[in-house]
Amino acid sequence: MPNELTAAVAVSLPSHSGVARMYQSVHLADAFAIRLPAGATHDPEVLARFIFSNQPAWVATLMRVRDSIVAHFGLKTGAVLAVLADAHKAERVGIFRIYSSTPAEIVVGEDDRHLDFRLSVLCQGTPDTDSLLTLSTVVHCHNRLGRTYILLIAPFHRLVVKASLRRAARIGWPRAGAPVTV
């Protein structure tokens, strides 16, 4: 059962986030926040790597189902992205390309023929106090395939983001000063 340190809640897209005005037209925009306890790192890259590498087991199953379907449409699969990640580890967080990074935020994502998306990991506050971690996603669709795809996966996307934040909180956030692992 979630408590105040493990509850991921829907919030407005932070206006100061690097993804807030990423695209002229947005087909999905959401944000979920969770409290970071005092002493947790505020390095957004460390947090992103931690969240993506500790997702619930059912997320991998869901991704395999997704990949088996989208491969028939010529879209990038997790396997394709994993090859890119292995070849360009310093430029990626997990399977996602790094687009920008500041001391408070990292923006990752991917572009494909059907849509482009960006995910922001934004820290607000200081390591000495409880603070807020917000994961925001924005998606711009290029065509009907992209719009149909995002319509179908949006509910799953929201479940994955919230579950991933809750799991990371239950495991225990990396401490301030934790090294970036690639």
Protein described:
The model has no long low-confidence stretch (mean pLDDT 86). The chain starts with 8 loop residues before the first strand and ends in an 11-residue tail after the last helix. A seven-stranded antiparallel sheet has the order 1-2-7-6-5-4-3. By secondary structure, the protein is an alpha+beta fold. A hairpin with a 6-residue loop joins strand 6 and strand 7. The protein has one domain: Alpha-D-Glucose-1,6-Bisphosphate, Chain A, domain 4 (2-Layer Sandwich), CATH 3.30.530. It is globular, with a radius of gyration of 16 Å. It contains four helices and seven strands.
Short account of what is shown:
34% of the residues lie in helices and 26% in strands.
Strand and helix map with partners:
Blueprint (H helix, E strand, L loop, with lengths): L8 E3 L16 E9 L7 H10 L3 H14 L7 H10 L4 E2 L2 E6 L3 E7 L3 E10 L6 E11 L2 H28 L11
Antiparallel strand pairs: 1-2, 2-7, 3-4, 4-5, 5-6, 6-7
Which stretches are poorly predicted, pLDDT < 50 over at least 5 residues?
A: none
Intertermini distance: 32 Å
What is CATH's topology name?
Alpha-D-Glucose-1,6-Bisphosphate, Chain A, domain 4
Class from helix and strand fractions: alpha+beta
Spatial strand arrangement across the major sheet = 1-2-7-6-5-4-3
**Share of residues in strands:** 25-35%
Main beta sheet, described? Answer: 7 strands, antiparallel
Helix count?
4
Compressed to H and E, one letter per element, the order equals EEHHHEEEEEH
Q: Whole-number average pLDDT? A: 86
CATH class: Alpha Beta
Radius of gyration using CA atoms only: 16 Å
Shape: globular
| CATH level-two architecture | 2-Layer Sandwich
Number of domains: 1
Percentage of residues assigned to helices? 25-40%
Q: Count the strands?
A: 7
